[in-house]
Amino acid sequence: MEIAVLVNSCGNTSGFDRDGIIRVYSRIQCEWTIIRYMEFRTEKIVDSMALHAAIREICDWLKDCKVIVVERIRGIHYIAFEEKQVSMLEIPGVPEIFLEDLRECLKHQRTAKEVPLEHNAVFELRPGIYHTDLREVMKGHTSYNSKQILLPFLKNKQYSLLEIICDHVPKWLENEQTELKLRYSVETYKDCMKVKVYPSKAK
Q1: How does residue 39 score in pLDDT terms, banded at 50, 70 and 90?
Q2: In a domain, 99, yes or no
Q3: How confident is residue 107, by pLDDT bands cut at 50, 70 and 90?
Q4: Is residue 103 pLDDT above 60, yes or no?
Q5: Superkingdom, according to UniProt (predicted)?
Q6: Which residues constitute the domain of residue 81?
Q7: For the whole model, what pTM was predicted?
Q8: 62 sits in which H/E element
Q9: Residue 140: count of CB within 10 angstroms of its CB
Q10: pLDDT of 54 strictly over 90
Q11: Distance CA 203, CA 187 (A)
Q12: Which has the closest alpha carbon to 70: 102, 114, 32?
């Protein structure tokens, strides 16, 4: 598995609003190794057309690598990568620290459709931060619905953030807000939605 990460000069994840380096990591003999890299420069990105052209060039360079990690996702970047079937993930920090956990998360999500239960559908990216892609979990498994998958987690798990990738906001979520003591926000992209769920006491 190859995972691309946009980093700054200090080696921490960065964003496409500033200069950085895109590193492609591969797990070789149980260690994450940089197998290639390219510079990302913002000086020539003067408008959205230039940005889309730059991202198309990046995607062509990534080849079979279909995941890129950044510090913070912006909608225009997400859409441009989504058009090239490259997934963006938002993880602040040092790649060498989170890559192994991310690999496990991605591996389980790809097999989650075989056993789409809460315990292997929601994954911890880092302490207190959880992620699930309902589109993948529910693909081909109409006997399960989003409430059956997420409600046990929301009732029993301590979390500071749960990110849900979905086609639409689960209708039951608003009705359960008070009882579950949660709040949420919604980000809409071209092909999906991202619902960010927080405990209501969190600021």
Answers
A1: very high
A2: no
A3: confident
A4: yes
A5: Bacteria
A6: 2-90
A7: 0.58
A8: helix 48-62
A9: 8
A10: yes
A11: 19
A12: 102
